[in-house]
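Re: weekly structure request thread

Next one in the queue (241 aa):
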Amino acid sequence: MTSFPRARWRPFTPWQALVALATTLAAFLLAGAALAHNVTEGDAGYVQEVTGFRPIAFIYLGAKHMVTGYDHLLFLAGVIFFLYRSKDIATYVSIFAIGHSVTMIAGVWWSISINAYVIDAIIAFSVVYKALDNLGAFRLWFGVQPNTKAATLIFGLLHGFGLATKIQSYEISPDGLLGNLIAFNVGVELGQLMALALILTAMTHWRGRPAFARQAYAANVLMMVAGFALMGLQITGYFVA
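Done, posted below.
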């Protein structure tokens, strides 16, 4: 499921690899850490001021968060990279959603928080982990294949803590809190489904092309580089802040 198709690799030329790497790093450095698990200034003000149960508003905020949450989407793209059957895709996405939902709601409800830089660095590591898994690195290095479902659940739990930590910093009103959290989570899952639909459409088209086998290797290497870049941003932020 997580192994590459058997094919003779023809990696990018040095110039292609350099351009792809530079583009990836530039995109994340320009985006900055502000986008990961973040809420825009206007949305943050609304979250801080609103009281009572506001399901439509929080569903919208949850969906907006997910479609702009590149760390979530990178990890999910890695999870489904070599999943071809709809049943397998649904299984893994559901596992991730369960983990993400549990810790997001429980973290806010019981005020369980982790330093934002630390948790986002761990989330960035999940992208690195999944890219290495797709590259078959663990079988090559250690002779074992980690349980991919367990890993997906664990990282789902950690992704949820990332958002819970951010939400707590905005001190949402306790009036209607549980209902708003559930609504927010519904929005997150709806946003996830929309984003995955686009990702799957693009990947289905890509998989049908003869170049997929050789490009898949490079894509996962770049995904790993992106994960390391995000880790670097968060670790730097931890020591600078």
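Residues 35-240 form one domain. Confidence is low (pLDDT under 50) at residues 4-19, 28-36.
Next request, please.
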